[in-house]
Design goal:
The protein has 7 helices and 8 strands, in the order αααβββααββαββαβ. The chain has helices at residues 8-18, 20-25, 38-42, 94-97, 99-104, 127-145, 172-185; strands at 52-57, 66-72, 75-81, 112-114, 123-125, 146-149, 155-166, 188-193. By secondary structure, it is an alpha+beta fold. It is elongated and about 95 Å long. It has 3 domains: 8-42, no CATH class; 46-104, ADC-like domains (N-terminal domain of TfIIb); 112-196, no CATH class. Residues 24-43 are annotated as: Disordered. Residues 51-107 form the 4Fe-4S Mo/W bis-MGD-type domain. Its main location: other.
Length: 197
C-alpha cells in the first residue's frame, strides 16, 4: 500500500493553480486560457482520429437533415450535423443526434433473421433468400386476393390482402414511387405512412 505524500497545503495550492476561477478573479481574461486546466489541456477531440469523413442524411424523418459521418479504419467514431446544409445548418434534433448510438450499437441487428411459422427459434438466412421470399409471398398473396370487379360489376382492380405502412425516413420522391408501385402496379388499397400517424 503506497501513501500519498502530497500534503493538504500542496493539494490546495495545486487546485487553486489549476482552477480557472482564481485566475479569472486575479484579472486574467476569461476568453484566454484561464478556463483551461492541466487536465483539459491534455484532452483531444475524437474527431482528430478520423481518417474518413463522409456525408449522410439523417434517417429519422422526412426533413432530410445532413450529417457528417467520421470514421477510423472503416468504423464510425462520430456523427454530427453538417453545417453546410441549408436545411439543418449543422444542427440535429435529439433523434438525429442519437444516430451514432443506434448505428454502432452492439444490439443492432444487421443480418436477416427468419422464424418459420409456428417456429420457436430464429434462423440466420442470406439477404438474397429473404428478398426472393418477400417477392414470392407478395405475388402469391396478390394473385390469391386480387379482385377485378365487384359483384355490382364495378371495376376495382385491387387487393385487400396486402397493406403498407411506410416510414418517415422516406422522402417525397420515394413515397411517390412506392405509391405508384403499390396502388397502380399491385392494386393495394391499404397504404399509409408513419409520418401521418
Amino acid at each position: 500500500m503506497t501513501k500519498n505524500h502530497t500534503t493538504p497545503a500542496r493539494r490546495l495550492a495545486g487546485f487553486l493553480k489549476d482552477w480557472s476561477l482564481p485566475r479569472q478573479a486575479a484579472g486574467q481574461d476569461p476568453m484566454s486560457k484561464a478556463a483551461k486546466s492541466s487536465m483539459s489541456e491534455k484532452l483531444r477531440p475524437r474527431l482528430e482520429e478520423a481518417d474518413t469523413v463522409g456525408t449522410s442524411i439523417c434517417p429519422y424523418c422526412a426533413v432530410g437533415c445532413a450529417q457528417l459521418v467520421y470514421a477510423k479504419s472503416g468504423k464510425i467514431i462520430h456523427i454530427e450535423g453538417d453545417p453546410r446544409s441549408p436545411i439543418n445548418q449543422g444542427t440535429l434534433c435529439p433523434k438525429g443526434a442519437a444516430t451514432f448510438g443506434w448505428a454502432t450499437s452492439e444490439a443492432r441487428i444487421n443480418r436477416v433473421l427468419y422464424r418459420a411459422p409456428h417456429g420457436e427459434r430464429w434462423e440466420e438466412r442470406p439477404l438474397d433468400w429473404a428478398m426472393d421470399r418477400i417477392a414470392h409471398l407478395v405475388k402469391q398473396t396478390r394473385d390469391e386476393t386480387f379482385v377485378e370487379k365487384l359483384p355490382s360489376g364495378e371495376t376495382v382492380n385491387h387487393t385487400l390482402g396486402i397493406g403498407s405502412l411506410g416510414g418517415a425516413t422516406l422522402d417525397n420522391e420515394e413515397n411517390y414511387l412506392l405509391k405508384k408501385l403499390f396502388s397502380g402496379g399491385l392494386g393495394m388499397v391499404w397504404i399509409e405512412n408513419q409520418a401521418r400517424i
